[in-house]
């Protein structure tokens, strides 16, 4: 595969993923206006079990299949990848149907763990209905994941990127239109509307699958020609193929499960713990704020930071395999620095502007402001966990990702109820932070152990970035205070958007100005910001 084609394919796939995630973020604004906190909580009750089932059924499958197919295509053994694909399709159909039936069947068993009778908001039957509505998507998504991986293995990223975007567009359109019709036109119940919203995952999957089938029909002649050129010198049984495929996929499955499993712990413990301290009547409102609405905002800087940082993972893998310790240290330094450079100011800005940010997305809510301010720092841990797990994959120590995730989940599970009874909603956030902290610390220790990497330089740079972030936060706080005074701020959506936009722009300008003046920008991003250096030199002349 040529370098230009690799870069083009990576760019297409990255753009597709980013567009898909942006769409997945934007829709929550009108969705919130339609269903509110109660509907958001109910939607989360259905979606978290679905995410776990879909991760188990397909987690890591596109990457694993693409790696498998690409490997044997490079050997001109095209029929091996095609044989796995045909067998895998049958397996994914069976897996999808079985997963759907299992989730549909156990919904009445899951629901009582979620709902406490003292909450008096959503009922057990409501939760059962929503979980069953989303279960149908499990029939299609595993098949879609396999086809995406097969195309990626043939160095074709367009089908995956376009199908992801179309899947999101169809899902969101069906979700919003369906909810609007049920609630505003037919005057239906909130449970019916949220069931339509979760069933939208099935409809979106049909849209994504349709795109993939169209690509398959279009490229079938090319794939047939490849089979004619098959060398036929390697023979693998299906058992050997699946064993190799599982070896590739397993680490991605566990890393992908991290956030849904943390959310599942909250889903099973939060309402009961809140009811135990006399807060049962507001527990579902608090749950939706914490585990649905605020979480969507917190994920924004995580997506941005990890997208930039993970581009360096292939070079880390290459340096490790070649035992080039100097290059490995350099790439690790750059990976961690870029991550912290992008995440720290985003997290600080989110914490400073917590009230207006939450109001800009949804509506003003004192609890939403408090939760977002406390929840924002977890973005750093989310990003570090993703990147350190990817580094472990790069240095062929991915098995430790499973250990670190297990340790973190045990911390979350053991402390969640206790901390909620002490600090209410904030307690659930603290338990999440402690769990991820343990996982990240373990990952960092394993990286140090197997690469002999030392963190002193990165720690010094992180402290410097934290100082710049603190300086930015002071400017942002002052600007926010002035704008609130001028606008006579009362939590309105329009004025919140104005405050967030202006304060964020000024804060970012301050952060990048001092990063440039200190030489940090050029140090991290090299020639990408060389024009800034030339501009300073011209001024000096």
UniProtKB/TrEMBL annotation:
Record carries keyword Cell division: yes
InterPro entries registered for this protein in UniProt: PG_synth_SpoVB, Poly_Biosynth_Transport, Polysacc_synth
Signal sequence interval, chain numbering: none
GO cellular component: plasma membrane
Keywords carried by this UniProt record: Cell cycle, Cell division, Cell membrane, Membrane, Transmembrane, Transmembrane helix
Entry membrane topology: Multi-pass membrane protein
UniProt record, GO biological process: cell division
Regions crossing the membrane: 12-35, 47-69, 89-110, 130-151, 172-190, 196-217, 245-265, 297-317, 338-362, 374-395, 402-420, 426-446, 458-482, 494-514
Localisation: Cell membrane
Pfam families registered for this protein in UniProt: Polysacc_synt
Superkingdom of origin: Bacteria
Location, primary (coarse class): membrane
Keyword Zinc tagged: no
Name listed for the protein in its UniProt record: Cell division protein
Organism name: Parageobacillus thermoglucosidasius
Highest classification ranks of the organism: Bacteria, Bacillati, Bacillota, Bacilli, Bacillales
